[in-house]
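hi! just following up on the protien thing from before. the input was this:
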Amino acid sequence: MLRFAVLALVFGHAPAHAFDTQATAAWVYDVTTHTVLMDKNASQPVPPASMSKLMTINMLFEALRDGRVQMDTTFGVSDKAVQMTKAGGSTMMLQHDDRPTVEDLIHGMIINSGNDACVVVAEGLAGTEEAFSQQMTQRAQALGMTASTFANASGWPSPDHRMSMRDLGILAQRLIEEFPEYYPIFAETEYSYKGRSPDNRFNRNPLLKLGIGADGLKTGHTSEAGYGLVGSAKQGDRRVIFAITGLPSDSARAQEAERIVSWAFRQFAEKTVAKAGVRVAEAEVHMGEATTVGLVPAEDLRLLVPALVQDKVEAEVVYKGPLSAPIAAGSPVAELIVHVPDLPDHRVQLVAETDVGRAGFVRRLTTAAGFLWKTYVEGGAPAS
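and the predicted 3d structure came back as:
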């Protein structure tokens, strides 16, 4: 395995300062460059409160996509759903004789954070909330949300109901990218089913009215979990997703969420570190028509770097060498590892710049003779 430095870029003169969040757990992710900007206890399973409604919403979106329900499909309202309106917490104020549509229920879950709406969806799709919770857990595992287990559809407190901030971030990205036709509902600020519960008609997301590009997703609060928020904002070509929990109040949640969005967009700059097809290094070639081959990225490599950074952004190439001919142009032969201060290393494949054919007989014989000379004579072994 050969390693050597290939570039060093300086983007500033002052040290980068890590964001010190008040949240007990947090995950911040730049979607555009696939960069984790913050990971504070992000893989730890914690009570997600109403933020876990995002999984119930995902299950309903999947049912819509699969054609199992339509936006105008109606669901019945059970005694259990009605009891959720009396148990405290957020509600659509559903009643037994209501037949809410899927569209009603989506708005009720997203904007009103209706616990009753979640029960209606669970029973409408799976028969019982218990069966639906098992399906949610299985689906979460299949989607890579390995720290998530669900005991109900609403986020009602339970020792068996847990999600990590990373899992919530994964789920948020899925809702944004897989369901663009429904995602704009997360940015709606007001909804009231049949004019009921006027005090609960407003979206609780504190970022939506700030003009900072926020367009989702879901708040959560219980006494056990504290105050949390899964949010997303887009400014220019960049989108940031974050999940935070454990804040002491709704005002602290609002302030922390705004601070995180500001930090994510203003303290990082997107830079082109390497251009597609432009050589960044050379690799040695064994038994080839040429002794080296250029190494190039197959596509532009754009990364986030701290806007204020004292240390250099460095990169190195790693490959198993020397490479053996023949080598086809465009074939992956090496890896570029970029070291950015305060961020995880970024790895990208490098490909051969040109074809390198196998050397002719005379060249191969000369190369072999040189190898034997170095190995046995210069190395001190007997030449006989």
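Confidence is low (pLDDT under 50) at residues 7-17.
The longest strand covers residues 226-235.
cheers
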